[in-house]
Amino acid sequence: xxxxxxxxxxxxxxxxxxxxxxxxxxxxxxxxxxxxxxxxxxxxxxxxxxxxxxxxxxxxxxxxxxxxxxxxxxxxxxxxxxxxxxxxxxxxxxxxxxxxxxxxxxxxxxxxxxxxxxxxxxxxxxxxxxxxxxxxxxxxxxxxxxxxxxxxxxxxxxxxxxxxxxxxxxxxxxxxxxxxxxxxxxxxxxxxxxxxxxxxxxxxxxxxxxxxxxxxxxxxxxxxxxxxxxxxxxxxxxxxxxxxxxxxxxxxxxxxxxxxxxxxxxx
Amino acid sequence: xxxxxxxxxxxxxxxxxxxxxxxxxxxxxxxxxxxxxxxxxxxxxxxxxxxxxxxxxxxxxxxxxxxxxxxxxxxxxxxxxxxxxxxxxxxxxxxxxxxxxxxxxxxxxxxxxxxxxxxxxxxxxxxxxxxxxxxxxxxxxxxxxxxxxxxxxxxxxxxxxxxxxxxxxxxxxxxxxxxxxxxxxxxxxxxxxxxxxxxxxxxxxxxxxxxxxxxxxxxxxxxxxxxxxxxxxxxxxxxxxxxxxxxxxxxxxxxxxxxxxxxxxxx
Lengths: 267, 267
Hints:
The structure is a homodimer.
Chain A lengths: L1 E7 L2 E8 L2 E4 L5 H7 L14 E2 L8 E5 L3 H6 L9 E5 L4 E2 L5 E4 L4 E2 L2 E7 L8 H6 L1 E8 L2 E2 H4 L6 H4 L5 E8 L11 E6 L2 E7 L7 H11 L7 E3 L21 E6 L3 E10 L1
Parallel strand pairs in A: 5-16, 7-13, 8-18
Antiparallel strand pairs in A: 1-2, 1-4, 1-13, 2-3, 5-6, 9-12, 10-11, 10-16, 11-13, 14-15, 14-17, 17-18
């Protein structure tokens, strides 16, 4: 299934794709649908529906850094024994076509990522339980404010700017997409490809990450886990390259779709 | 005012201290009261009421590290230009007398801290607005799982173990307590004093922290900001000292009260 939260009647509705039409599911969005535990039984066709941020209200948004083996090895580092984890908020997220509104003067960088949507309550889950607890996959861009990220040892303050992390456009269920088989994770800036990696080279795969996190904190339906970014970020270039006002960032994962967001500097 | 969430009729109630009695406030807990924006008009006396976790549902729990000048300077470091920030969850919190249930074999350490309760919606607030947006102060212990904290560069995975961070017992409003005038922050383990600092030596005071955080993410009524710990943590001892099963941790701040929690290793 391809699931989404779509525009409908001045608000939103959870929806499932049926051919080229979106059909209503019984909740205002996918966060509420997953929270309710309701079966995704398709209802009426929603004419003119457009996907928006699929999960507007995750309780936890946890991100993994340094997770693509090819990128880590090319930088001369050893593969990590444990995932590096940090957090964002529901407030950090933005829709698949949303403008990313940020103050002028920040060093804003891209990080195309596969995101995992949790579909069950996971507490000290093993890999098998974690795999069964995946509701689906979606596309995210872990937009990072590098100057704030590196002000201190802890990255959080560069990673949690409100409305900076686009997610969507759809959530694809695991029966239709298996990241272990390899999907391409691509980022383009103003049409130029700047990142291209493959989820086959993830050090910690989605089930690893969910099991590991669930050792210390419970995960619940609708929570999001971002799996890290492949090589090609702007901060690693010589000289570094950051996003400018008006830059268009496209984030694409094969089988999942494309985010298209414009950076807008505001005061 | 001394505010709390107290036991009442098999559930809980928000409450305000009147002499030696707790009087009901119109919400099930202080999170709901602050969320509703209702005036804290005292109702009936709640006989036998006992304070529990005052804020069971903060949307954001943000912590500052390396914030006591005397401790930083004694370690030979320079004072930081920016606060080091990381996060916990509502799930991380525990009541003022709760047992702290953690798996055996972890390196569990204490960090007595002043916590700030947000009372207004703060977005890019200046110091003055941030100061006005403080609902009150409470006691917290940022219990830290050191082996997980230092597995990677990011501390989060050692800081967010469910049910590990006691908070309470009361929230005291700013008209009754001003951390700038200096309150003592004390930790005892099995009756032995292991930490004693004073909030006069905070590098970033509560208003600084709220204003800084609100630059990148909105703060809302009921959110919690932990202000960092003074010297004396177990990991800094030679040899290091960690908490053992059955150890009793008391966390006291003058004018705010005392948390008393027992560490229990479980499997």
